[in-house]
Amino acid sequence: MRLGEERRRICFHCANIYESKETDWLCCPKCGYRVSSRRYHLIVDRAREAVDYGYQYRLKYEEDFAAEGAITKHYALTPFNEFLTFVAVAAASGIVGNLSTDLVKRAVGKVREALRREEKGETGGKLTALLDDPEKMKQFMDYIDAYFTCFEEIEPHVRAAIYEEMIVDRISPTMTDRLMKAYPQLKVEQAQEISPFTQEEIFRMMIEARRDLSQRPGLKPSLFEGFWEGVEPESEQNRDTE
What we know:
This protein is mostly helical.
């Protein structure tokens, strides 16, 4: 994210979705709720990982494994937009934070309504279809739950492929950064297409990535205290949008 760039956020109190620049404290323009940038990103970044690896890549690799009986190829999937990450934040607040199903549903309802208002293009349409489909939403919530609570129990070949994606995504920025420093005349696109690193260097970076992944701070229930307390019931949300 570029310094000063506006980015979509979700308020942890009222589930209002707004845009703001990166600052030490993020403040919801609707209800005034403030949260430190550190706490916000700790939660949202982990929710984004759950969507990317626990849902999107898992679906793809399960599909491949069911068809081929093995994982024979890897992907660079385009991430979903931030709305689905916000749904995962709501899911995590119930899974990790032990918030009531009612509060989680209220937050998801707010995200759904915001998506409908801002829906643009094919991606938005697909997300709305997912959020409006009870079976797909149940699968999504189940996969997010599994990512946070029992990731080690999913099919071993699928889990290994997902973990490999996590490691590659961790080391790719490091490799690109080192290459750009060594060859400043290169464009980023060119740096991403070549790899002057030895197998030993790549292996070392993979070990470092594995260590970083294993040492990530986990989400604790206390992080979700006060979440969604300012979100009105869905019946009132629907009335407001009619």
